Amino acid sequence: MDIATVNALPYEDFVNLLGNVVEKCPIITAAVWSGRPFSNLTALEAAFSEFIDTLPESGKEGVLRCHPDLAGRDLQGGTLTHESQEEQTGAGMDALTSAEASRVTRLNEEYKERFGFPFVICARLNDKATVLRHLSERRHSERAQERARGIEEVKKICRLRLRALVRDDAQSKL
Amino acid sequence: MDIATVNALPYEDFVNLLGNVVEKCPIITAAVWSGRPFSNLTALEAAFSEFIDTLPESGKEGVLRCHPDLAGRDLQGGTLTHESQEEQTGAGMDALTSAEASRVTRLNEEYKERFGFPFVICARLNDKATVLRHLSERRHSERAQERARGIEEVKKICRLRLRALVRDDAQSKL
């Protein structure tokens, strides 16, 4: 799909096609539609980031809370969204040893207990080892710092999900 | 469920139980969790309304765009959320004559074409006749006025959905 096609979509199709680029937050996609037309993929990506930035801190925490745990119950139970499923398995989250799995569960719980939102990381830009390292390190952060860090990861996930759906015309002209 | 039970819920349970009080916007529920504890049902209702008020105009339009058409494809296809299904059938939207159904479809399309978001009304506080009357009248409004009107209806829907889930302790003491 190129950007001209995206710009011509009625809001219902826009939300159906792009509604999960921010995990379980179709309202963000539905809001971004107000800003069309987008001159290119970069502008579309920026519109998502900018909308997220307008949210109050509680809203940013809300975005994080719509994300599943890494290597959590949803992965084991097959109830992840299609996108999360691909990202988590791509990073090897479905292939943890039982010791690693127990450790991730314990660290996820500790993280959620401390911050009131889940650990979010762009799995596509990480592997099992770096996910575990970041989870272990970030659980000691301050809440505000960790909220901002999580939101930066949400934006990276959003960007990669958008790029899987919308062609970058700048690149396709090369 | 009483308010003390609500206040004790971890965010995951809070979102699972109350995640659709604003249609397809679990992020709003997830954000509202940040404001706990709530002194009573009225305070919980106010937290939802206040969060919606913090959204930029595009975000309010996003909320409206997460709503299905009244008597639309989702009702006919059985793909409404549980809550919308109950509300739309309660208002008789599943029992339109074929002439009424054609008229609603035409007016819905006209409304969406004009405003870029769907006609939203609290079906529980209306019946077939008043829904049709409001739809017919409101399609001639101004966009900003209609956005504000739709959001007021979203808040009414939210309040009634909350009251179906959380006991009003003030009343139960009477």
Describe the structure.
Two copies of one chain form a homodimer. The first copy, chain A, has 174 residues and is an all-alpha fold. Chain A has helices at residues 3-7, 11-18, 26-32, 41-54, 57-65, 73-77, 82-90, 98-115, 128-138, 143-165, 169-172. Chain A folds into two domains: 3-62 and 162-172, UraD-like, CATH 1.10.3330.10; 69-150, UraD-like. The two termini of chain A are 17 Å apart. In chain A, 65% of the residues lie in helices and 0% in strands. The longest helix of chain A has 23 residues, at 143-165. In chain A, helix 2 (11-18) crosses helix 3, helix 3 (26-32) crosses helix 4 (41-54) and helix 8 packs parallel to helix 9 (128-138). At the A-B interface, helix 2, helix 3 and helix 5 of A face helix 2, helix 3 and helix 5 of B.
SS strand fraction of chain A: under 5%
CATH class of the largest domain in chain A: Mainly Alpha
Q: Greatest interface and its residue counts? A: A-B, 31 and 31 residues
Residues in helix, % of chain A: 55-70%
What class do helices, strands and sheet pairing of chain A give? mainly alpha
CATH topology group of the largest domain in chain A: UraD-like
Question: Concise description?
Answer:
With 174 residues, chain A is mainly alpha-helical. In chain A, 65% of the residues lie in helices and 0% in strands.
